[in-house]
Amino acid sequence: MKPNELNETMETVMLPAMALRGVTVFPNMTLHFEVERDISMRALEQAMEQGKRIFLVTQRNIAKSEVEDGDLYEIGTISVIKQVLRLPGDNARVLAEGVSRGRLHDLMQTTPYLQAEVQLLEEVEAPFEEDIQHEALLRTTIELFQQYAEVSTKLTPDVLLGVMAAKDLGWLADFVAQNIPLRYEDKQSILEELDAERRLHLVTEILAHEIQILKIDQEMQAKVRERVNDSQKDYYLREQLKIIQEELGDGSGDDEIQEYTEKIEAAHLPKEVAEKLKKELSRMAKQPFGSAEAGVLRNYLDVCLEIPWTQKTKERVNLEQARHILNANHYGMEKVKERILEFLAVKKLAPDLKGQIICLVGPPGVGKTSIAASVAKALNRKMARVSLGGVRDEAEIRGHRKTYIGAMPGRIINAIVSAGSSNPLLLLDEVDKMSSDQRGDPSAALLEVLDSEQNSTFRDHFIEMPFDLSDVLFITTCNSLDTVSRPLLDRMEIIEVSSYTDEEKVQIARQHLLPKEMKRHGLNGSQLRMTDGAIRELIVGYTRESGVRQLERELASVCRKAAMKLVSQEAKRVSVNGDQLESLLGVRKYHPERMESMPQVGVVNGLAWTSVGGELLEVEVAAMDGSGKVMPTGNLGDVMKESCQAAISFIRSNASALGVAPDFYEKQDLHIHFPEGAVPKDGPSAGIAITTAIVSALTQTPVRRSIAMTGEVTIRGRVLPIGGLREKTMAAFRNGIHTVFIPQDNIKDLEDIDPTVRTGLHFIPVSHVTEVLSQALMGLESVSAPQRVQGDKESDLITPSHDTSSVSTRIYQ
């Protein structure tokens, strides 16, 4: 229905009128606007006195200040004044809410305010539920408005939510027209359309047009920005920066660049490195003052210039001098010393020999870390230690990209910088304690570092340039090889550092530890004296370890007690022997295994290897009437339980030759027990001790008292070689054993045994368990080995070279 088609009989009302310039108010919408003209202020006051209703109509020519008949549009909005806020200068800010459309029927007066006869207009409703076309139109409008919202930056989220929730066509058209920036002519045309469907069609056309305009506007702005001359902009900013620096008295920018240039020239860097640093320096010179990128580049240049790219220390190739240094600082460890001296000998003949990778494996406290410092001193190389315990990030080895905040080189490059030489000795400590997670595997990153064929071009992520590690001597340490990856082990030369014997500990304490602690506590040789007997008693009774750390702490305690006596003037000189230790250190902590005074039935002394040295391990067997059950107890591992089964199988297959009842496995129960049940035990090396104890129990034959034995047994009775013989024999010697049965194949290992132990023990090598039974059991001297079947010979046996992981494992808290 057009405005000129209005029914003349519609209701009319007399209302104050206000002419709006450039503003259109829609029904059911709220709008803020300012009132300045006197005629409008008077109309506002009149409306506030007559129920707050006012007729708001847009002025055709917004430039005119005086309103005459014909200057106003015919269609306006009957509104209610919600709020009036007085402003300085006789102005006001008004909040009005549109109620309904109205037609200006006649302008009754123009002074002192506008008074109009307004005809009420009824809209043609278009309910959403009645026509599917209305739904389609509604969805089209919403979709267009969403597109408009994407390209416009002036809409609030509330407006978009209001459009999305709309279901009335007329309300949606008015809401969109009220909330988007349109020309007042377009808004007026929407206001004058009374048919809701046609009004919404008009809004969609205007929206589509506005979207095209906004897109074109964005494209034009992008093209304008692209045409800005970057070089001119950069020049302009640099000139400004220079002026600012001059005003502040800070003209150090050029001086800093010159300083870095001189450092690069003076460092005599490799060509590739020098070019890279000059390139980065050029980038830094172009950075604006105080930029984050300049800070990153400055840090990068500082780190790269700290790296000793060409600095090297002159290596000592004097074998005698190197041997003297190694022997002066460490007792024993002959394999490690021999390997280092071999390296020096080859270096003297072939100066171009590259660095070596050596892995020292052994229990804690045996001097793996400290020997590295002695090796560095012997070779006249600088040393840096890299602790890898607990490292689980690949970036710890290779570093971080320099673009990251807080980026730094990896531990390898940091160690090189710390050493100040490109051919140092790098100690990679605790390589078996590394782990991996979602950030990578550090042991995989070490593969390149410890590969002599690849590490000449090692690239750290931070440095981004190859660094030659081929002249570096790498020494790694670990307590166990079980957790070290196979590819990493393949790149290292393994040297086992075994635990110290008691005699070695005595020498270490006498030559190194005691003098060190006395000097540390301000004592001299005339003030404190310790006998060898006191040191031995200290080792046996107050320490239980593979190394000497606890021994050093106990010696420190003795020195403190002596210092206390000297300062309190209780004595002028303190002499300590074995009997006086309890008065200084308290009750003895560890006691030797108690041996039975008489031969026992079913009790055999076995020998075990532990992480703190060798131990005497008793095996007890009790044979009882029963149904053939076998009960192994004592916190045993699977391997040791299998050794019990192998021993029983051998005895069953040779029962008549051993003097055992052929049906013992049906009529007797066997309880095989290893004392100290709280301590885990595992390994096959107790095989011959288990066999001997079972035969003793079944035949009720006593076992000789002062013997011990170690060796794995098969179901055919063969005795296989074992590991840890050095520590086991020391345990036997310490516990008063006279005779030790060892496997025949372990005779070669007797050379590594302490001379005192080798002299004090009688070793009986055996290849078959019957040789043990005939000499260990009293009354079974006539036992002979069973007939060998064809193919059962030593050459058919694949024997391990070492089984320190398979021997009895004992854990002491």
Low-confidence stretches: 1-9, 785-813
Mean pLDDT level: 83
Main beta-sheet annotation = 5 strands, mixed, barrel
Number of strands: 26
Question: Distance between the terminal alpha carbons, to the nearest Å?
Answer: 100 Å
Shape: elongated
Q: What is the structural class? A: alpha/beta
Count of helices?
28
Q: Can you give the helix content as a percent range?
A: 40-55%
| Strand composition percent | 15-25%
Radius of gyration: 49 Å
Strand order of the largest sheet: 1-3-4-5-6
Report what the structure shows:
This protein is elongated. The relative contact order is 0.05. The protein has 813 residues and is of the alpha/beta class. It has 28 helices and 26 strands. The longest helix is centred in the N-terminal third of the chain and has 31 residues, at 196-226.
What is the topology?
Elements: E1 12-20, E2 30-35, H1 38-49, E3 53-58, E4 75-87, E5 91-109, E6 114-120, H2 132-151, H3 157-164, H4 169-179, H5 184-192, H6 196-226, H7 230-248, H8 252-266, H9 271-285, H10 292-306, H11 319-329, H12 334-349, E7 357-361, H13 368-379, E8 383-387, H14 395-398, H15 411-419, E9 425-429, H16 442-449, E10 458-459, E11 466-467, E12 473-478, H17 486-490, E13 493-496, H18 502-520, E14 528-530, H19 532-542, H20 549-567, E15 574-576, H21 581-585, E16 600-601, E17 603-610, E18 613-625, E19 630-633, H22 638-653, H23 655-658, H24 664-667, E20 668-673, H25 687-699, E21 702-703, E22 707-709, E23 712-713, E24 719-720, H26 725-734, E25 739-743, H27 755-760, E26 762-766, H28 769-776
Parallel strand pairs: 1-3, 7-12, 7-13, 8-9, 9-12, 14-15, 19-20, 22-25, 25-26
Antiparallel strand pairs: 1-6, 2-5, 3-4, 4-5, 5-6, 10-11, 16-21, 17-18, 18-20, 23-24
